[in-house]
Write a sequence for this structure.
């Protein structure tokens, strides 16, 4: 079990009033109602509110958006946020440790598909569960990233690219299809990804094609494949983590997903790598590993032998990951993530609103990003009499004391 903690300073006064709206869950809204804006953030807590944003994208593509709860979009056809004739999303989308599930995209007219079509903004603390069957650039979280960054985010499900017509290439990735001038950190994908057939194909478990980007402390476990087609002047780059990387910095990553090398008969070039299909330019790959047994690959980068593969037993042994930070960034447990390293949780609640002695405190759910996806068990010390933090992270009660309190909040993950 991995424990994280943070210290909060909390003031309880006799006459101090709570800030308006603090701790209250945003009211439910149907598709005709806009989500509320609280302290400069568009606050989303229901599927109806997220669908309202999706159907009125021009109002929200530069806004900061925050999730207040998990959201299930099952039964709806999602239109990727940004791109496809609209401006790219340029705000900050903070999932606050929540998950958007039931994301389905099957409209074959889109060029960029994923939860986001195109983004130049900041995407963080977010999980997505997707079924994507569309897109020249097809990704789980995003079709194309141009600038900006991804932090503490993940994708689950399936991504299959489709070509609506003429296109210069076909690109697919479990987290993002294309990433240019982007930073990706503390993120992962378990998406099974298949790139559409084209004369130029790029496919990877995390990213399809990356240019001048940085990927750190991340991993991919989903299967990687390409659609078959007639041979000839066809070029394929396929990797467990990324299909193609130019002028990129890749460090402390791993890949375990199977790479299907059966659909390349007659191709001019088919380049496979346990981590990266093709690494060119002033790129570097350091402190990174792959599972040779599960990926089916013997080399980490295309035809290069620069990165050796490992057995499953070795991949489940912390000693394999030389130079990795298992105190702050990573954790490993035989009961989590099939025994492979996983990302440590992060407490996202950084302060508590002032309260009033002898007045009920509005119930507040503490927030965290859970890298193990097995739930966080919460605890606290230093709470005033009358207040309780239960194991689910719900803070509630009526404070019986006034004053300033130093409260230590701790969370323990499933590992």
């Amino acid at each position: 079990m991995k424990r994280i903690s943070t210290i909060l300073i909390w003031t309880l006064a006799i006459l101090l009033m709570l800030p308006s709206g603090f701790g209250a869950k945003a009211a439910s809204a149907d598709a005709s109602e806009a989500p509320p804006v609280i302290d400069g953030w568009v606050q989303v807590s229901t599927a109806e509110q997220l669908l309202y944003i999706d159907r009125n994208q021009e109002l929200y593509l530069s806004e900061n958006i925050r999730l207040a709860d998990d959201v299930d979009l099952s039964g709806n056809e999602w239109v990727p946020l940004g791109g496809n004739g609209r401006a790219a999303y340029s705000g900050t989308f903070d999932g606050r440790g929540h998950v958007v599930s039931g994301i389905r995209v099957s409209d074959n007219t889109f060029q960029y598909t994923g939860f986001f079509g195109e983004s130049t903004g900041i995407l963080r603390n977010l999980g997505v569960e997707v079924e994507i069957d569309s897109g020249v650039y097809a990704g789980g979280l995003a079709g194309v990233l141009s600038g900006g960054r991804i932090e503490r985010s993940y994708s689950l499900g399936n991504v299959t690219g489709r070509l609506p017509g003429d296109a210069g290439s076909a690109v697919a990735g479990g987290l993002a299809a294309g990433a240019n001038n982007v930073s990706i950190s503390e993120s992962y994908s378990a998406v099974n990804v298949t790139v559409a057939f084209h004369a130029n194909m790029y496919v990877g478990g995390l990213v399809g094609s990356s240019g001048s980007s940085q990927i750190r402390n991340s991993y991919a476990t989903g299967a990687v494949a390409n659609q078959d087609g007639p041979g000839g002047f066809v070029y394929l780059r396929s990797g467990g983590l990324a299909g193609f990387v130019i002028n990129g910095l890749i460090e402390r990553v791993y890949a375990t997903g199977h790479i299907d090398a059966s659909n390349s008969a007659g191709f001019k070039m088919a380049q496979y790598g346990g981590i990266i299909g093709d690494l060119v330019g002033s790129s570097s790959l350091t402190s990174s590993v792959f599972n040779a047994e599960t990926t089916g690959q013997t080399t980490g980068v295309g035809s290069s032998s620069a990165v050796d593969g490992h057995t499953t037993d070795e991949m489940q042994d912390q000693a394999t990951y030389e130079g990795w930070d298992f105190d702050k960034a990573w954790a490993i447990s035989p009961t989590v993530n099939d025994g492979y390293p996983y990302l440590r949780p992060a407490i996202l609640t950084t302060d508590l609103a002032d309260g009033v002695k002898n007045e009920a405190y509005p119930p507040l759910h503490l927030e965290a990003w859970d890298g193990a996806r097995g739930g966080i068990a919460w605890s606290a010390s230093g709470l005033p009499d009358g207040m309780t933090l239960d194991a689910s992270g719900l803070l509630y009660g009526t404070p019986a004391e006034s004053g300033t309190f130093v409260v230590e909040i701790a969370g323990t993950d499933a590992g």
